[in-house]
Amino acid sequence: MKTPDANYIEKLYRAYYMDVYSYLMTLVKDAHEAEELAQETFFRAMRSKASYQGKSGERTWLCAIAKNLCMEHFRRQKKKKPENVPKEVDAGIFLERDVTDRMQSLEIHQALHKLSEPYKEVFSLRVFGELSFREIGQIFGKTENWARVTYHRGKLKLQETLEKERKNEI
Predict the structure, then answer these.
(1) Which residues lie below 8 Å from residue 53, measured CB to CB, with a gap of 6+?
(2) Which of 72, 21, 27, 56 minimizes the C-alpha distance to 42?
(3) Is the pLDDT of residue 6 over 80?
């Protein structure tokens, strides 16, 4: 017989697995890694269920866990040295492009992490969670128009942050 916690996590899993998996796919761009991280997301959700306060939707809570796992994953990958670096020049070009894409993705996520609420959550729900403005408005108990405006403002703030950081690098 399953415990009430196991039933709750199973319901979450059935309801949100594809959302979490899709979100992770946009971040890691690798099906196997996204699947592993999605499984770990639900495992961590099960372990930290008591700390979930219900201030955000379950999908948002799970995506936040997934995002944190993804950041840990990127940090681990950064520390690892490549095992089998292809010798062909073409493969080197693809490897370089992949590294650049991941670095840009990490840069965007770091800038996103600096955004204040509700901009950060609305932007994440729209871009990574692929929710409609209507759904985002419902999550926050606001209107669809509020979600649109908040997303647009968050996007502008994110662009400003990225531009400032790039100028500081020069």
Answers:
(1) none
(2) 21
(3) no
